[in-house]
Fold this sequence. Notes:
Layout: H1 12-37, H2 49-69, H3 74-80, H4 92-116
Amino acid sequence: MNEFTERVPENEKELFNIRHSLLRTAIERGFGILKSRFRSIVGKSFWSYETQVDVVFACCIIHNHIVGVDSYDFLMEEICSDSEPIRRTINLSQREEKKENRKWMKKKRNDCINHVA
C-alpha cells in the first residue's frame, strides 16, 4: 500500500478500496500464521462448514494462548523478525490485564455454550 502513502484518497470509494485492501492483507497474514502453526487447516477440508468454523476459532484461541504464555515463540520470531521485535517482558500490570481478559473470555465462552444448549 505504499503507493497511497504520498497522496490522499480522492473520494469515499478510493478510501474504501484502500481500507479493504489493508484489511484483506491483515486477514491473509493471520490465516498464514494459523496455517503455519496448525497443519490440519491446510488444504481441502473434509469437515462440515460448521466444524471448520469451530476448528479455526479453536486454533485462534490456542495460538493466542501460546503467544501470551511464550514471549519467545519460534513462529512469531520468524514472522515478525523484520517488522517488529516480538521478544517482550510482561510486567505485573500486563499479567493482571491478561488475567482479566481470560475471565472475560471464559464468561463469553460459557455464554455461547449456554446459548447453543
